[in-house]
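Need residues for this backbone.
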């Protein structure tokens, strides 16, 4: 669900950060979300499914980065 201002939801942005950002952990993703003024960061990123998805995205990004260098 989009936020009222039309921007990405907390979960959408967390996935984007995990996929293409520089965060290397869920706490780093949460910090970035808070810095970007997202609300309910802990609640939105605490579920088992979203945590697993974020970890896989971070690992995949890191793996791709290692192969490129």
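Answer:
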């Amino acid at each position: 669900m989009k936020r009222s201002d039309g921007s990405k939801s907390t979960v959408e942005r967390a996935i984007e950060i995990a996929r293409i950002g520089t965060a290397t952990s869920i706490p780093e993703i949460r910090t970035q979300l808070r810095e970007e003024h997202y609300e309910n960061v802990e609640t939105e990123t605490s579920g088992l499914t979203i945590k697993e998805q974020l970890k896989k995205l971070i690992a995949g990004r890191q793996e791709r980065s290692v192969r490129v260098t």
